[in-house]
C-alpha cells in the first residue's frame, strides 16, 4: 500500500470514529427533510435529516449503522455541506459521484479541493460493491434535500 493510500485509509477511519453530524438534530423553524436509506448487501443503514434556510444547508444530522466506509462517508458529507449553499452542496455531490465512477483514478484539483476529506474515498471506486456503502449517505442527503425543498415550497 502506498503512503497516500495509507493516509486516505487513516482519514476514513478517523471519520468513522468521529461521526460528524451523528445524532439527529431538531433544526428548529426551518424547512426540514428526512430520508432513510438502506444498503441491504452490506447491512448499512442511515437516517439523515436536512434543514434548509432559503438556499443554505443550515443543518445536517444523521443516525446510522454499518461498515466504516458508510459511516465515514456520511460523516465527511455532513462536515462538507453543512453551512454551504445548495449550489455548492450539489456540486460537491456531483464531484463525489464522479470520484466513485473514476475506478480509483484521482480527479482534477478543482474537484479535489471541493471534496476535501472525501477525496480519501478514491480507492473505493475500484470496488463496485463498496461504492454503494460510500454513496448511501449522499443518496440520503440528496433525497432529504428534495423533501426539504417541497416543505419549503
Ligand atoms: Zn457497507
What would your notes on this structure say?
- With 153 residues, the protein is an alpha+beta fold.
- The chain has a single domain, classed as Sufe protein. Chain: A (Alpha-Beta Complex).
- The protein is built from 5 helices and 3 strands, in the order H-E-E-E-H-H-H-H.
- A 3-stranded antiparallel β-sheet has the order 1-2-3, with helices on one face.
- Helix 3 crosses helix 4 and helix 3 packs antiparallel against helix 5.
- It is globular.
- Bound molecules: zinc ion (ZN).
- The site of zinc ion has 8 residues, from helix 2.
Give a summary of the structure in a few sentences.
This protein has 153 residues and is an alpha+beta fold. The protein contains five helices and three strands; from the N terminus they run H-E-E-E-H-H-H-H. Helix 1 crosses helix 2 and helix 2 (68-81) runs parallel beside helix 5 (128-152).
Keywords:
50% helix; Sufe protein. Chain: A; alpha+beta; 153 residues; globular; binds zinc ion; 5 helices; 3 strands
Q: What is the approximate shape?
A: globular
The order of strands across the largest sheet is: 1-2-3
Largest sheet: 3 strands, antiparallel
* Count of the domains: 1
Number of strands: 3
Order of helices and strands: HEEEHHHH
Map the helices and strands.
Elements: H1 3-18, E1 31-39, E2 44-53, E3 56-65, H2 68-81, H3 86-100, H4 109-115, H5 128-152
Antiparallel strand pairs: 1-2, 2-3
The protein binds zinc ion (ZN).
Zinc ion is lined by residues 39, 42, 44, 66-67, 69-70, 133.
Amino acid at each position: 500500500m502506498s503512503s497516500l493510500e495509507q493516509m486516505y485509509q487513516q482519514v476514513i477511519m478517523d471519520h468513522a470514529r468521529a461521526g460528524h453530524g451523528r445524532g439527529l438534530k431538531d433544526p428548529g423553524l426551518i424547512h426540514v427533510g428526512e430520508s432513510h436509506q438502506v444498503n441491504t448487501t452490506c447491512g448499512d443503514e442511515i437516517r439523515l435529516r436536512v434543514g434548509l434556510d432559503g438556499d443554505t444547508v443550515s443543518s445536517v444530522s444523521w443516525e446510522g449503522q454499518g461498515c466504516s466506509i458508510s459511516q465515514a462517508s456520511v460523516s465527511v458529507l455532513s462536515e462538507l455541506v453543512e453551512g454551504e449553499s445548495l449550489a455548492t452542496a450539489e456540486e460537491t455531490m456531483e464531484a463525489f459521484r464522479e470520484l466513485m465512477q473514476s475506478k480509483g483514478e484521482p480527479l482534477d484539483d478543482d474537484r479535489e479541493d471541493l471534496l476535501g476529506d472525501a477525496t480519501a474515498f478514491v480507492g473505493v471506486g475500484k470496488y463496485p460493491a463498496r461504492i454503494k456503502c460510500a454513496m448511501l449517505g449522499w443518496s440520503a442527503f440528496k433525497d432529504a434535500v428534495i423533501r426539504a425543498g417541497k416543505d419549503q415550497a
